[in-house]
Automatic annotation (TrEMBL), chain A:
Gene that encodes the chain: LIF
Species in which this protein is naturally found: Felis catus
Chief localisation class: secreted
Similarity comment: family membership: Belongs to the LIF/OSM family.
Subcellular location: Secreted
Coiled coil: none
Protein name per the record: Leukemia inhibitory factor
Automatic annotation (TrEMBL), chain B:
Transmembrane segments: 735-756
Family to which this protein belongs: Belongs to the type I cytokine receptor family. Type 2 subfamily.
PANTHER family for this protein: INTERLEUKIN-27 RECEPTOR SUBUNIT ALPHA
One Pfam match: LIFR_D2
InterPro entries linked to this entry: FN3_dom, FN3_sf, Hematopoietin_rcpt_Gp130_CS, Ig-like_fold, LIF-R-like_Ig-like, LIFR_D2, Type1_Cytokine_Rcpt_Type2
Designated name of the protein: Fibronectin type-III domain-containing protein
Ranges in a coiled coil: none
Signal sequence residues: 1-27
Compartments, record wording: Membrane
Fibronectin type-III domain ranges (all copies): 329-423, 428-523, 525-618, 620-731
Alphabetized SMART domains for the sequence: FN3 (SM00060)
Keyword Disulfide bond tagged: yes
Keyword Signal: yes
Amino acid sequence: MKVLAAGVVPLLLVLHWKHGAGSPLPITPVNATCATRHPCHSNLMNQIRNQLAQLNGSANALFILYYTAQGEPFPNNLDKLCGPNVTDFPPFHANGTEKTRLVELYRIIAYLGASLGNITRDQKVLNPNALSLHSKLNATADIMRGLLSNVLCRLCNKYHMAHVDVAYGPDTSGKDVFQKKKLGCQLLGKYKQVIAVVAQAF
Amino acid sequence: MALFSAFQTTFLLALLSLKTYQSEVLSEPLSLAPESLEVSIDSARQCLHLKWSVHNLAYHQELKMVFQIEISRIKTSNVIWVENYSTTVKRNQVLRWSWESKLPLECAKHSVRMRGAVDDAQVPELRFWSNWTSWEEVDVQSSLGHDPLFVFPKDKLVEEGSNVTICYVSRSHQNNISCYLEGVRMHGEQLDPNVCVFHLKNVPFIRETGTNIYCKADQGDVIKGIVLFVSIFEEPKDFSCETRDLKTLNCTWAPGSDAGLLTQLSQSYTLFESFSGKKTLCKYKSWCNWQVSPDSQEMYNFTLTAENYLRKRSVHLLFNLTHRVHPMAPFNVFVKNVSATNATMTWKVHSIGNYSTLLCQIELYGEGKVIQKQNVSVKVNGKHLMKKLEPSTEYAAQVRCANANHFWKWSEWTRRNFTTAEAAPSEAPDVWRNVKSVQGHCVVTLFWKPLSKLQANGKILFYNVVLENLDRPSTLKLLSIPAPANGTELTLDRCSYQIHVTANNSVGTSPASVIAVSGDPGNKEVEEERVKGTEDGFCLSWKPQPGDVTGYVVEWCERPGDPLCDLQWKNLGPNTTSTVVSSDAFRPGVRYNFRIYGISTERIPYLLEKKTGYSQELVPSDNPQVLMSNLTSYSFTLSWKDYAAESQPGFVQGYSLYLKSKAARCLPGSEKAVLSDDSICCKYKIDNPKQKTFVVENLQPASFYEFFLTPYTSVGEGPQGAFTKVTTPDEYSHILIRIILPMIFSILLIMILCYLKSQWMKEKCYPDIPDPYKSSVLSLIKSKENPRLTIMNVKDCIPDAIEVINKQEGTRKSLTETEPTKPTYLYLLPTEKSHSGPGPCICFENFTYNQAASDSVSCGHVPVTPKAQPSQLGLLTSSENVPKALGKNYVNSLGEIPAGETNLNYVSQLASPMCGDKSSLPTNPPEPALCSEYKTQMAIPMGLASPPSITLLDEGEHDH
């Protein structure tokens, strides 16, 4: 449940906020109507592509900022500490239909958004003076929120999908500090790898 | 006896009951052993928590017991800790005890056992140990999981300088594990084949975000690590307490450094006073208030304790309350009885005890500086008289106090401003005058300098000017000039006056300043001397006057070019003969004029000397306009009489004349000089600044020169200007002019006459119908071979004769070389006599054209050689054939002329029929008029004119 309190619930509240909101929303509402809070942009796919390109463009810089801020042994042992060994990361098939790709993208961004929330929270405590890292993390999370909204709009408008089942990564709040640093590094390494493939697929 | 028996029975019963009770409680000592021992782990703090109870105690029984606890590591025989823990035990009470391990508990298996004993004085016979409990094993390694490598302790927080033990647990025996701290490998001790321990001593503080310690295996991708947080926690500094009112103590301190990521919010400060035993938890990190006890406690011993997650830090302070009094600022501060020179300051202080005295300090500020400082002892009310003040001056007075007996700190200042009263001006104004004579009157302009603040003693309201006529002493005239005027103008008659000037404020009048004006202005002519200024000003000196002189005055204008001039003066004593005049208004390049006056005993100024000079001389600002005159072949004269040397920013000492010429050497009186543009020229130096003309001599005729004249001062020459060009005239040019001009005039005159008489000239020189008698050919013929030749008369023509002219073929001679040919006449008809005179016919030939033509046909006569074929002649005689032949040749000339023969041969035509042409006689009898007729020239091709093809032109071909 900690994962919900940490990053997922605020994220979903933002995404699914409607008039009368205040009671907790189900993560995947079964009977949710396919309606969006705001009218979708006319050129959604273009916006999605741009947002993916934006994320892809900044992913490597974020990765470098992160592992540099963690100190030794991270910068010199990237393969061992920051390898993209994230077991439960949602899959992505670049050769699938647009609908499939959008659904998979939605899952990936939801997963990444939650994980990024955990990383941001941890780094504010562990590296309170790494302001550029915080700023980059926040900016990336902002873009992801917008991207998730656009993907949802697209799924809703074109494919009439009201909800997508999503999964989230492990919560780091109970981990020790070194493990937090390592998990964050692995996640960002994976993010850098995946976002390049996804951006290419759209 | 019965009573004794009863008592004995009772005693025995009681003893029996006690025995029974004792047998109930203590009959089985093993039953007081600790039971239900449980051991748990707090990994964060690396603690073992023990929990047990003693069951076999009686209800409500409470005994002091001691428990001996043994802790072994790895194996039970390896006991690493033994401790006796004493406590009071109740029945079924859960007892707790904790032990912090230096070694991370995950690194090794731990076992715990304990036993207990009664440690109560009531039952000393029961003080023996119970049996040991069984070993309780604590093995965290078994629950770690399946990772190949672990490092402990996680997120350990230690204080800087402490010792830390770190270990790793490896699941593989084969791998070599190496561990690093900040990139430096650590060397440890093998606890068992899978566990290695590292002892870090005196750990340093590296950063707030912790220190990464990691271990990695030689094989595989395994890296595991921990973060060690090191905290710095210093004791508080500058701990101090004081009181301001003897009711409250205010203690302050500077918190020591407390660096460490996880410890920032865990600080707390406690103040403890040992004499009273009171303690207070401070709300703030740097200060705390303490209520002074009403029981007249004098001595205080404070302990300030700072505490964080890891440890405590304390500082102590022992003091007497009366020695730590920081008085409140004085109040009810007033400045009273303010006169021109005195004022009294009064104030009150807060009492700090019945018998204490305060020391108060008074400071008097004038114009931002402390001018008086005084200490005064005060009980409650303070008073201080401030003397020697200046009239009409603003002052500030301030007072502060401290404990006189045991000085601790001054109170804050309390400040008051005040202004002293005015007084009459103390000094006479400094007066000077300027005297001019206008229309028989004496116009006196009086100037005075405003009194300084110290002299004025208040605000000057007006100036009184009293005019005393020295010739009529009883006549006085009073003028009142309101301030802030610094002068006035008076129109006086020729009489002598003495002028008294006084300054007045609201309190009184200043002493009078006296100056006299005589009837004679006394502006005698004094020669002006030059004086050199320096950075410090002008150093002026003058000769002492033999008579009685009451003083000297130096007068000058600070703005010489300005009509208002800004007149300045300086009063000097009678024994002074020099002074330095300096002013911020002096500017470089400005000429200042100084006048030195002596003041007679009658207070009449008279001019002694004049001085002039520059505070700093500059180079001339402009160059003179030079006029050139008297230009000859060898010299010219330059003049610059309009140049105002006095207006230059320096004394002009002379002039430099630069002369450029093609000559390599400079003329006598000049020297070579290099200009700013690196060109070389000759320089004449004119040392006399009054010389305004210069003759440049020894020049070359018909030569080009350039000159440039510039003045110079002691600093340098004037600005570089343009050179003026001049060319000396040729030596003979005047002669040429005397000849050429009249010639040109004459030619012009002739041309005008010719134009006016053009008709006459035409008739005379080139008439439309030339007069053969005036022909040059005729004259040529006459003059050469046949002087008898003359114009043929018609009657002289012999119609039956052909004149044949012999001509040598193949000779080409010019006209001038042409030998005259002898004409030969073939007489077609017998003549009566041989005609030996000149030929009867004349032809005109144009010699201007083709040489070949002139060679081949020297005349219009048909050249007929003696061998001429009759057929050819026949052709010639046939007038019908002429056009035919002409047409044929003409066609040829157009279509068949070779490229090299395209020259035209112009032949001057002779009128036909030719004289003596017999064939033409029957049809065209000769007419005298035709003989001398000119025919229009016609261009014919060379071929037509060349022999032997002979062509004649008939009249029809001429009339175009």
